[in-house]
Amino acid sequence: MEKKTLLVASHIDKRFGLTHAVNDVSITIAAGEIRALIGENGSGKSTFCQMLCGIYSIGGGTFTLDGNELHITNQVEANNAGVAIIVQEMGTLSGLTVAENIFLGHEDPFVHHGIKDTRAMNREAQRLLDEYGFGRIHAAQMIDHYNFEDRKLVEIVKATYMKPKILIVDETTTALSQNGRLELYKIMDKTRADGRSVIFISHDLGEVLEHSDTITILRDGEYIDTVKASDVTEDDLKRLMVGREIGSTYYRTDYGTPVSDEVVLSVENVSVPGEIENISFELHRGEILGFGGLSECGMHEVGKAIFGASWDRTGRVKLSDGTEINDIPTAIKHSIAYASKDRDNESIILNESIRNNIVLPSLDDLANHKILNGRKLTNFARTHAENMQTKMQNVHQYVSDLSGGNKQKAVLARWMGKDSDILVLDSPTRGIDVKVKQAIYALMGELRKKGKSIIMISEEIPELLGMSDRILILKDGKINGEFLRSEQLSEEELIAKMV
Amino acid sequence: MENKRSREAEPSKLRMFLTSDLFKGLLPFIGLIVIVVVMNILTEGSILKPKRIRLLLSQVYYPMIVCTGVFFVMTLGSIDFTEGSTLGVASIVVSMLSFYSVPLAILGGILTGAAIGALNGFFHVKFKLQSFIVTICTMYLFRGVCAYMTTETAIPASPAIKALDSNELKIAITVVVLLVAFFLFKFTRIGNNVKAVGAGETAARFSGVRTDRVKFLAFVAAGALTGLAAFVNVIKVGSITATAGNQLETQILISLVLGGLPITGGAKVRFSNIVVGTLMYTVLNNGLVMLGFESAMQQLIKGIIFLIFVALTIDRKALKVIK
Q1: Which of A237, A352, A444, B148 is disulfide-compatible with B199, CB 3.0–4.6 A?
Q2: Does B204 touch chain A if contact means CB atoms closer than 8 Å?
């Protein structure tokens, strides 16, 4: 039976200066459908959705919802027309209460003669929160009181309480833990059951296959194909996204390769108040040591602690020669590298050139009697950026102009330039498309063979299983499980130790 | 996605040029030429007469030395409002010590300035107070010291130090300061680190930059150079009154911004900002005086030009509170 058509996007187009972000894309979405939109970074999927919900102006073409053409200029109008979005970044406003956030832009029902009835608003917000099963969040409380994940849940309520005809979920799941994801899937299913539709953007292809009905693939702003989720495999999708065959060497394929006994770094009773407690472990030469857990388990702090970047740390981080690492300059001097999960703030200076970012930790090595030579710096940066195949115009380009994947390549390029022996990589493939992911995994494999040691902190379980020689699972700031690399090791075993 | 930042759908070529980094980089030079030409026409050619030029130059030295120090602070994205009062206090020290020995006076001036800079840096770094707040407080403090020391009478300097007043010496000091600072900024790690902190403090810290030390040193340098400028000031004026260095901090701030230094500091800072900015301010100031504007009107015109330059040169991507 043919379902009723809900949304018709016809010849949608958008340019940003010279970039053709969305190129003549036409799609049709039926009522009661979960449509995934996938593509690499920069393929135009987010831009497409942001035009639909009024964040960007429509460059060309029309959106027709339920037979009416949409003329939307901002998000509130979009909401009123029946289109709502949950965004990737933080979408709630600090300094407002939960209730004020939920009804932002829709306060009118609670305003009588110009005066806001706060109690009625809180009551209604609490009713909604309870209805969604988020009763532990209090409507009258300031939003700042809650962590990132709870704020995301509030955003979900905000976007869906008015029952939009089209709900856009833009890479929201990367911000959520397993539980939060389940809540979100439930809401998506419910929307479908009501005969409304969902546009679902995600980099996690497993999740896409499991939770969507149909999948539209975009590449470089162009429409490639729409397929049924039941007809395709993850590999098919990767091929469609990238436009060529992705090799089978996505993760490491070796099992049972011995790891050296030589300890390069030992961590003894390290604690950071409120984050981690009495963490002790040893890192071996040529080992990839994975750290996993729920997003609040403290594993991200472990990376900072090793790098000397934690405030208030106790315990000892020691190299094989006995050197203790207590601050960042010492860590870098002794060949420790760190790529943060918070890439844009901690890993790289956005408002600075690729060149200056790459040379920054290596300035002392590049100086001749403390004097720096500009050409030498440029060559050094170019060599390492090109080795990483960073997509750029030249090394003087600003990092802020690069896509997420290329920023990460620039981050890695600087540590390759420093030739660090111990690499602490926190969420190295976060928000990065398959092509770059593959390159990063290949690099990690190579470094491992050269005898470099890697600590990989990751929220992606398949990545932990696929790349690590050994996995430590953290729960509530403590080590709660240790697994050695094995083909038999399953996601369930890891999850069991996380929750 | 990488596209999000450029929001203009189809920007016109003119608009693209006006917002380009090339244009922003050229703007101070264009501004300097325009101001010189306009002033020359309005004063019917008298601003470019040799005598006038010599007078102009004699006003350039000490602000340029002070600008060089503050340049480092502003590259950090911070601000320093203490130059005026530092110059006042350091000038008093120089004058008093000049009766014992001239080298001692120079050293005393520099150390006094450095000490005030160190105080600013200490409060800014250790107590994580914004430089804006710290230096406004210390500005009042040292302005008070300066006024207290000069209540009875102006403080005279020794004839020996006044005898040194020559353009050659002032040019030499200024050139040496500029060369050393240029070398530090361009060819050493410390210069690179100052820029990195200005562009992104957290990421710089995670790249191994000792951010606290860098910030502290920048304030000390700004103070020390102001102390050196106090020496140049003393040989020129000969005696110090309560108003010594009054409003110098705003003059420096305006000069650097006119020179194209983005008030947010960071990667787009150029060393030429110091030279171009100081020259521009001096020409503008002299031109307005020669044209016979009242001082109230002069301030108004300077204010408008300052606003226009801030708006044109500021790096909006990096916009945040001044540290």
Answers
A1: A352
A2: yes
